[in-house]
TrEMBL record:
One of its GO terms (molecular function) is lyase activity. It comes from Kribbella jejuensis. This is Branched-subunit amino acid aminotransferase/4-amino-4-deoxychorismate lyase. It comes from the Bacteria. Keywords: Aminotransferase, Lyase, Transferase. InterPro entries: Aminotrans_IV, Aminotransferase-like, BCAT-like_C, BCAT-like_N. Pfam families: Aminotran_4 (PF01063).
Length: 253
C-alpha cells in the first residue's frame, strides 16, 4: 500500500508524504523583497551555504539560489514579495520556496516578557521552531506582545523571531549570549562605525536608554518594555541606526 495524507478527512493526493518528512529536518532564510531587491542579500546567500554545509555536508552555491529566487519573482509577476527559502534533503538537496505578499514593518513599540530558554543549535535558522511559537503565545496570553529569552545565568539572548540590541546614547550594544546571527543584525553591525558586544544581564536592563528588535521585516522595532522595565523613544540611538542602514543599500536578485 502506498502512503497518502488526509486533511480533516479529505484526501490530499498532490502532497508527497516524503516531502513533509524531509522538510522537518532542514534550515531556511526569510526575505522581504521590494522592487526585486533584498536588504543583505549577500548575507542570505552566505547563511544558506554555511548552514547547508553544517547540516548536510555539502555546499549550496549562490548561483542556484539566485536562479530559484528569480524564478519565484517570475511566477509571482511582482517584485514586492515575502519569500522563505527552505533547504532540505532526500537523496538530493532541495529548495522549497514559499512566496507570499510583502509584510510591512510594525509601527508600535512592543512589550516583552522574559523566559529562561535557549534554542537548540542557536547558530542555525533551522525548522525546529515549536519552542519559539510556544513561548511567544505564552507571553501574549499573559498580556505581552512577545517573548524574550535569557540563559540560565540570566543573560539576555534573543526574542522569538528577532535579535535584540540595546542603546546607551548613540552606542549600540549586542548581547553575547548564544543567538542566531540575524541577517538584519549583521547588516546593522556592518553599517555602524562602531558597536559593542557584551553580556546583557537581566539585572542591567535599567542601565540602557533604549532597546530595539531586528529581523527581516522590522529593521529597528522599538521595545516599550521588558518585564517591568520601560523604555522611552530615544532619537539619538534611532538616528544612529537609520544612518547605519543608509550605508547598506538593498541588492538586486
Amino acid at each position: 500500500m502506498s502512503e497518502f495524507l488526509l486533511l480533516d478527512g479529505v484526501l490530499l493526493p498532490a502532497v508527497d508524504p516524503q516531502l513533509l518528512r524531509a522538510t522537518s529536518f532542514g534550515h531556511f532564510t526569510s526575505l522581504q523583497v521590494r522592487d526585486g531587491r533584498v536588504d543583505g542579500l549577500d548575507l542570505h546567500f552566505e547563511r544558506l551555504d554555511r548552514s547547508t554545509r553544517d547540516v548536510f555536508d555539502r555546499p549550496l552555491p549562490e548561483p542556484r539560489v539566485r536562479a530559484e529566487l528569480r524564478a519565484a519573482l517570475d511566477h509571482a509577476r511582482s517584485g514586492d514579495l515575502s519569500i522563505r527559502v527552505n533547504v532540505f534533503a532526500t537523496d538530493e538537496l532541495h529548495l522549497l520556496i514559499r512566496i507570499g505578499p510583502p509584510v510591512a514593518p510594525a509601527t508600535q513599540p512592543v512589550r516583552l516578557r522574559t523566559y529562561q530558554h535557549e534554542r537548540a543549535v542557536p547558530h542555525l535558522k533551522h525548522t525546529g521552531t515549536f519552542d519559539l511559537t510556544y513561548h511567544a503565545r505564552k507571553a501574549q496570553a499573559d498580556g505581552y506582545d512577545d517573548a524574550l529569552f535569557h540563559t540560565a545565568a540570566g543573560h539576555i539572548s534573543e526574542a522569538s523571531i528577532w535579535n535584540i540590541c540595546f542603546a546607551r546614547g548613540s552606542e549600540l550594544i549586542f548581547p553575547t549570549a548564544p543567538t542566531l546571527p540575524g541577517i538584519r543584525q549583521q547588516l546593522l553591525q556592518r553599517g555602524l562605525p562602531t558597536y559593542t558586544s557584551e553580556p546583557v544581564p537581566l539585572t542591567a536592563l535599567t542601565t540602557y536608554d533604549a532597546a530595539y528588535l531586528t529581523n527581516s521585516i522590522d529593521p529597528a522595532l522599538p521595545v516599550a518594555s521588558i518585564n517591568e522595565v520601560s523604555y522611552q523613544s530615544h532619537p539619538e540611538s534611532a538616528d544612529a541606526i537609520a544612518k547605519a542602514y543608509a550605508t547598506q543599500p538593498a541588492q538586486a536578485i
